[in-house]
Amino acid sequence: MGMLIIGIVLSLIGIGFYVFEPAWIASSVGAGGAFIGAGVAMIAIILRSLQIRKKRGVIEDERDYRIAEKASHKALTIIIILEGVLLAGIGVTESNIQAQPVVSLLFAVTMLTYVGFYYWYKRQM
Fold it and tell me: How far apart are CA 25 and CA 31, in angstroms?
């Protein structure tokens, strides 16, 4: 129940960034979106686990942990390769790229890669 409250608080902070647009934040839209996204994700995960617990009683087993381990390892491998290629490309071209869009892209790629591999391994195992 505490994680549900944290998710709601994160979402409210994000909404506050959109509404008040504090001057000390470089991009209130980006920060607000990140907080809202994190809050909504936490709320969805908690509500889903409560629903599963109510239905079946067992949320996870050893198989789920093994699937998560394999998906994490594969996502980490891919993101390390992607970061290396990106770093080499930036170093060779001497481009003047801002950090926030690159970090946001890497975060999105990491999450999508992990989720994709998690469900792929779940079907395979």
Answer: 8
Same domain, residue pair 12 and 47:
yes
Residue 47 CB neighbours (<10 A): 12
52-109 pLDDT tens trace: 777 776 656 788 889 989 999 999 999 898 888 887 877 777 777 777 777 778 888 8
Residue range of the domain that includes 107: 60-124
| Domain end call among 32, 58, 84 | 58
d(CA 118, CA 95) in angstroms, rounded, equals 35
Q: What gap in Å lies between CA 107 and CA 109, rounded to an integer?
A: 5
Shared domain check, 52 and 106: no
Q: Would you give the distance in Å from CA 1 to the centre of its chain?
A: 21
Q: Tell me the CA distances in angstroms from 85 to 30, 78, 81, 88, 90, one per residue in order.
A: 25, 11, 6, 5, 9
Do residue 54 and residue 65 come from a single domain? no
Quote the pTM value: 0.61
